[in-house]
Amino acid sequence: MTEHERFQAILSDYLDGELSEQDCDQLEAHLAECDACSHQLALLRRALQVVHDLPQVRAPAHFASRLRRRARRSGLLSRRRRKALWRMSMPFSSTMVMSVLLASVGALLIVVFMLQKQIELLIEHQPPPRLQVSSIQEMEELARAIWDCGGRVGLAGHSLDAASPLGDAWELDLEIPRTAWRDFQLALERLDLHAQLDPEPPTGTGAIHLLVQRMPPGEPARQPD
Amino acid sequence: MRAEDDIQAERQIVEALKRGEETAFVILVRTHQHRVYGLCLRMLADRQEAEDLAQEVFLTVFRAIQDFREESRLSTWLYRITRNHCLNRLKFLKRRAHEKQLSFEDARQADLHGQAIHRPVAAQVPRPDRLVEGKQIEAIVNDQIAALNEEHRELVVLRDLEHLSYEEIRSITGLPIGTIKSRLHRARMDLARRMAPFLEEA
Question: Which of A7, A67, A87 to mutate to test the interface with B (most CBs of B within 10 A)?
Answer without folding.
Answer: A67
